[in-house]
Automatic annotation (TrEMBL):
Keyword annotations from UniProtKB, A to Z: Aminopeptidase, Hydrolase, Metal-binding, Protease
PANTHER family referenced in this protein's UniProt entry, alphabetically: METHIONINE AMINOPEPTIDASE (PTHR43330:SF17)
Gene source species: Virgibacillus natechei
Gene coding for it: map
Protein name, UniProt field: Methionine aminopeptidase
Pfam families attached to this UniProt entry: Peptidase_M24 (PF00557)
InterPro entries: Creatinase/aminopeptidase-like (IPR036005), Pept_M24 (IPR000994), Pept_M24_MAP (IPR001714), Pept_M24A_MAP1 (IPR002467)
Annotated residues for binding of a divalent metal cation 2: 105, 168, 201, 232
Amino acid sequence: MITRKSKREIEKMEAAGKLLVQAHKEIAKMIKPGITTMEIDTFIEKFLAENGATPEQKGYNGYPNAICASINDEICHGFPREEKLKDGDIVTIDMVVNLDGGLADSAWTYTVGNVDEKGKRLLEVSKTSLDKAVEQAQIGNRIGDIGHAIQSYAEGEGFSVVRDFTGHGIGPTIHEEPHIPHFGLPNKGLRLKEGMVITIEPMINEGSWHSKMDDNGWTARTVDGGRSAQYEHTIVITKEGPLLTTDQAKY
């Protein structure tokens, strides 16, 4: 069932989004060669607790950590680990914050030290793909308009769009209807309505869009070893246009 959120629910989700943005800004200061993603996970757990919030995905279907940390060819749901990040890596940190029952979900891909030009371009195209998709998150538009905006741009730039994982509705739990694919046809799919809250989170690959699963049952990675990047916002559909609760430029 698709739920449309009340003003009070949206205000709580905005507060969670503000805290999530602050968490990402702290992470951005920490990312450098030699740090481990487990250190980031430990920091986030403490940071959220100090601010009266909890990591919503910890314990979700048995997931053990406060963040997902996906390095290089890992597409999503990478486990934090003690392996040190190396110069030239890229790492996606994804988390869901629960603050007083309001949820916010945002992933961000970071460069570690000096990343090659193709890697920088991957991140740039991935971020622009999200921006173009957000522009389509308007009352009366369809879900296919969002996916088409991502696919047409990313593929036009020589990259591929992961098909196996989608955005989603959010609140009061992490994954709600509807699914938001990052590929598709314009003017197809469910219409967006005022009060819906969704995530848009394109995962863009250097090579093939196909993925394979690690033995842990969680981590997806590219089949060809190409790198993958992801950016994600939580978005409220409003009369005034898309409201980004996780807008890093706003807080």
